[in-house]
Write a structure and sequence with these properties.
Blueprint (H helix, E strand, L loop, with lengths): L2 E7 L7 H10 L4 E5 L10 H6 L4 E5 L7 E5 L3 E5 L11 E6 L4 E6 L13 H19 L5 E6 L12 H4 L7 H14 L2 E2 H5 L8 E2 L6 H4 L2 E2 L2 E5 L7 E6 L15 E5 L2
Parallel strand pairs: 1-2, 7-8
Antiparallel strand pairs: 1-14, 2-4, 3-4, 5-6, 6-7, 8-12, 9-12, 10-11, 13-14
Helix pairs in contact: 3-5
Length: 262
């Protein structure tokens, strides 16, 4: 059962309902994983998505903050939602397709502005969240699984516009990169995006603070698609829909795609 999957931090699914519909119409992924929906589940505008063929949704939401959802043209059933680090945040949902593949959709905490847990509680929460993700996947090694989402870390030097200048900036600090690497190793996850695009600068996020984001191109690869090793060979066709960052009233993230021939 081949399918195309996309992941996108939408930064308010209700505010940007039209952009989600535009993506579904023009790109037609079989599955779209959204983060930072900022909506209770019952207020997610599902009617318009269903009219475009996305009649299946699983979601974890909360008013005004966080929130994750999976929209699908394929039947999907919820199999897990975890509150890592006991933050009380809607940051994870997992669904299983009829072929047995489990899709984990994550929105890892951003971590605030200062990369020091002693003075910045949010940074500590981010590290704790990643630690519990690591422990979870170490205890329950994923099989026939895909992990996607806004992981809020750009791990490689070529995942940021300037490795040297961002070493002390939250999202690219060595301690965050090390924590993310431990999560990946615990689950033996394969980074599908970098398997397909092994070299070169690659970004999925550009700050709202840069009005000339496209020309300046000071981006970071914060969004990821991973797969368990037993199905990683089936993943291909990775791409970033950079143009979406330039749509009217956009999210600061661009959608990331991959295809799986399973």
């Amino acid at each position: 059962m081949p399918f195309t999957l996309a992941t996108w931090n939408i930064n308010s699914v209700r505010l940007r309902e039209g952009l989600v519909q535009k993506l579904l119409r023009e790109e037609a992924p079989d599955i779209l994983c959204l983060q930072e929906c900022k909506s209770p589940v019952e207020k997610i505008p599902t009617e318009g998505f269903a009219a475009l063929g996305y009649r299946h949704m699983i979601a974890s939401g909360q008013k005004g903050y966080n929130g994750v959802a999976i929209l699908s043209r394929l039947p999907i059933r919820e199999v897990a939602r975890h509150d890592f680090a006991a933050l009380g945040h809607a940051r994870h949902i997992a669904g299983q397709l009829e072929n047995g593949v489990v899709i984990h959709n994550f929105y890892v905490p951003a971590g605030g502005d200062k990369p020091d847990r002693e003075i910045n509680e949010k940074f500590g929460q981010k590290l704790d969240y990643l630690t519990e993700m690591r422990d979870h996947f170490a205890a329950e090694r994923p099989e026939r699984a895909i992990l996607v989402g806004d992981l809020n870390i750009a791990p490689r030097e070529d995942d940021v516009w300037s490795h040297k200048q961002l070493l002390k900036v939250v999202s690219h600090t060595p301690v965050e990169v090390a924590h993310l690497a431990e999560v990946q190793e615990a689950g033996r996850w394969v980074d599908i995006t970098r398997k397909d695009i092994p070299e070169g600068k690659l970004y999925t996020w550009w700050s709202y603070r840069s009005p000339d984001w496209d020309r300046a191109d000071k981006g970071r690869r914060l969004d990821h698609i991973w797969a368990s090793p037993d199905i990683a060979g089936a993943g291909h066709g990775s791409r970033v829909l950079r143009a979406a960052r330039g749509w009217e009233k956009p999210s600061d993230h661009a959608p990331l795609f991959a295809r799986f021939d399973l």
